[in-house]
Specification:
- The complex is a heterodimer of chains A (255) and B (218).
- Chain A has a domain of 176 residues.
- Chain A is 76% helix and 0% strand.
- In chain A, helix 3 packs across helix 6 and helix 4 runs antiparallel to helix 5.
- Chain A is globular and about 70 Å long.
- The termini of chain A are far apart.
- The relative contact order of chain A is 0.16.
- The two termini of chain B are 23 Å apart.
- Chain B is 83% helix and 0% strand.
- Chain B is built from nine helices and no strands.
- Chain B is mostly helical.
- Chain B is elongated, with a radius of gyration of 18 Å.
- Classes of the chains: A mainly alpha (255), B mainly alpha (218).
- Chains A and B meet through helix 5 and helix 6 of A and helix 7, helix 8 and helix 9 of B.
């Protein structure tokens, strides 16, 4: 008898999907966030101090090489943030979990700041090394295009008042934009062979960045990842509470 | 479908439809460029393919916000959405009508304006081919932008911001075909890429546009 009663009740999602419930999500993020902040701060401070003060200057580039500790992690996170938004948009479109849509919304401003950091540090690095702040190099150009995609995405979120419509439209834009971002990446490669060096952190390559620079760089990357996670969780929580506050206001107005 | 196409074409051609707006803009851009960069014919012939492509792209962009906005305001889109025709087909037809009224005139006008910019003789064929292949992609991608922003009041600027990065690959390959053709180089690779983008976009983009429009009509 108890078996039939059990199956009659709607099945509760468990595991990963249970965090689509805003209450559970907020509970988790409140528990995790303090640790995340502390870990992000420790690894960022440690990585940057290690990188800036305890590594030798490069043979040719002198001390400008140390921009790498900001440039590479922020560039990686700029791309990863978009990838995360893509996954979150897909989850929203397929499973209609509001938390997912709000997480994508929350990640966009973080991603755009990361893109901006990568572009600015790149310009500051490029000036002494290449003799120019900006060149129409494939990597630089595709980052500029990524920046435009972020701006369009955020602008679309802001322009539409009805939250579910905005979530749907931005998700569709994110999917289409991802395809075109990849396409642009290869198009600009074709259009101009540039100044920027190739990947310097591949796992399968013989020659990477020298070990003295490599390990502090890994710490910095870990720091940026943790910082991104903390910011996104925090901002998603804010969005959820904002939406709740709006719902309460709407209810008050009706009474 | 034919009726819809005929209706869209008629509306565009008749007064107030904005037919010729893109063409006029294209004319203005190409005529003004020599005043901006100086009349040296070598310089002009070097930048001519890029300027013509850019002018065509901006002319397309300019006419996009009329693509769905008028039908949205007077409720035609709601009727079309409830018609037996799938929304994907409706939007494909609308993109086709936009191309016939905007893209095709641009393709035809480009060689005339190329004379003003002193385009070398070798470039004419490839300019026309690249524009003829690339402008349909501009119309179809533009339809997606229009479908996304149709619910936004005064969404023109927002649409430009959304559509601009989407236009980048088409512009790169299209202008590259025209440039290489002008300089007598091998054009096959960018030409095939351009054709691939256009074919892919025509095949897949209507689904994205229709998805966006359905959300807006909800």
């Amino acid at each position: 008898m108890s078996m039939t009663e059990d199956t009659a009740r709607p099945k509760r999602p468990s595991g990963f999907w249970s965090y689509a419930n805003p209450v559970k999500f907020l509970g988790l993020s409140e528990r995790v966030l303090p640790t995340l902040w502390v870990l992000a701060a420790i690894s960022l401070v440690a990585g940057l101090i290690w990188g800036f003060f305890f590594t030798p200057d490069d043979f040719r580039q002198g001390s400008t090489v140390k921009i790498i500790y900001l440039h590479v992690p922020s560039a990686m996170m700029a791309i990863n943030a978009w990838a995360m938004m893509l996954v979150a948009s897909l989850i929203w479109l397929i499973r209609r979990h509001h938390v997912s849509a709000l997480a994508a919304k929350a990640a966009a401003p973080v991603g755009v700041v990361m893109t901006l950091i990568a572009l600015c540090t790149g310009a500051i690095w490029g000036q002494p090394m290449w003799g120019t702040w900006w060149a129409w190099d494939p990597r630089l150009t595709s980052f500029l295009i990524l920046f435009l995609f972020y701006l369009g995405y955020i602008a679309l979120w802001e322009a539409i008042e009805e939250p579910d419509t905005a979530a749907d439209l931005t998700s569709v834009l994110c999917l289409v934009g991802s395809v075109f971002a990849v396409l642009s990446r290869y198009a600009v490669n074709f259009w101009n062979q540039g100044l920027h060096q190739g990947a310097s952190l591949s796992l399968d390559k013989e020659e990477n960045v020298a070990d003295v620079f490599y390990f502090p760089l890994l710490v910095c990357i870990a720091g940026f990842v943790l910082l991104f996670l903390a910011l996104v969780l925090y901002r998603t929580g804010t969005e959820i509470r904002l939406r709740r506050a709006r719902a309460l206001q709407a209810r008050e107005a009706r009474l | 479908m034919k009726a819809l196409l005929r209706r869209d074409l008629m509306l565009a051609v008749r007064a107030g439809g904005g037919f010729g707006l893109g063409l006029a803009f294209f004319l203005i851009v190409t005529v003004l460029v020599p005043f901006g960069v100086g009349p040296q014919s070598e310089l002009l012939s070097r930048i001519a393919p890029g300027i013509l492509w850019l002018g065509a792209l901006l002319a397309c962009l300019l006419s996009l916000d009329r693509l769905l906005a008028l039908d949205w305001e007077d409720g035609t889109l709601d009727l079309l959405a409830t018609s037996p025709l799938p929304l994907e087909a409706v939007l494909s037809i609308k993109a086709l009508a936009h191309w016939i009224t905007t893209g095709l005139p641009l393709v035809l006008a480009a060689p005339v304006l190329a004379v003003l910019l002193n385009l070398p003789p070798a470039g004419y064929l490839w300019l026309i081919v690249s524009l003829a292949l690339g402008t349909p992609a501009l119309s179809v991608i533009g339809t997606f932008g229009a479908a996304l922003t149709v619910g936004v009041k005064r969404g023109g600027l927002l649409m430009s911001l959304l559509v601009l990065p989407l236009y980048v690959p088409t512009l790169i390959f299209g202008a590259e075909v025209a440039r290489r053709g002008t300089e007598g180089m091998q054009v096959m690779t960018p030409l095939l890429m351009l054709a691939g983008i256009t074919a892919g976009v025509i095949a897949l983009m209507p689904f994205a546009s229709a998805a966006a429009l359905r959300v807006n009509l909800r």
